[in-house]
Amino acid sequence: AQLVESGGGLVQPGGSLRLSCETSGFMFRTYYMTWARQAPGKDLEWVSSISPRGIDTSYRDSVKGRFTISRDNAKSTLYLQLNSLKTEDTALYYCVKGLWKAGAPPNDRGQGTQVTVSS
Q1: Whole-angstrom Cα distance, residue 13 to residue 118?
Q2: Alpha carbon of 76 to those of 4, 42, 65: distances in Å?
Q3: Distance (Å, whole) CA 117 – CA 56
Q4: Which end of the chain has fewer beta carbons closer than 10 Å to its terminal beta carbon, N or C?
Q5: Cα→Cα distances 27→31, 73, 99, 107, Å
Q6: What is the DSSP string of 27-56?
């Protein structure tokens, strides 16, 4: 599996970003997909997941109402819309193949895209 994230950057508090994850090498449309993030000095943490057809979504409490996960199965691409960003959202954001919420860091993930929220 190959997963390539993009869309990160430096943004002021309250700003927005849209992350993308282009995938290949597996049947994307049959897998749950997950976004996870890792802040400096902290463990990897789950952010959001989406079911194969995009019907079911889930979010960690701290991002509910601000982040939106979506997918385009025709393009094998996963998205994460980040709105009302806070400094505590600063992290390296990873796209993960499958459903991951805790435990050992997943092997099937991209290289990450950096999101920095700062004034």
Answers
A1: 6
A2: 11, 30, 25
A3: 28
A4: C
A5: 7, 9, 15, 17
A6: -GGGS-EEEEEE-TTS--EEEEEE-TTS--
Tokens 């952010």, residue located: 47
pLDDT digits 0-9 by tens, 75-117: 999 999 999 999 999 999 999 999 999 888 888 999 999 999 9
CA–CA gap between residue 113 and residue 117 (Å, rounded): 13
Nearest to residue 78, comparing CAs of 96, 66, 92? Answer: 96
Whether the CB-CB separation of 66 and 83 falls below 8 Å is answered with: yes
Residue 27 token pair: 């049947």
What tokens were used for 105? 């860091």
- Tell me if 96 sits within 8 A of 33, measured CB to CB: yes
Judging by DSSP bridges, how do beta strands 91-97 and 113-117 pair with one another? Answer: antiparallel
Q: What is the dihedral of CA 90, 93, 98, 103, to 10 degrees?
A: -50
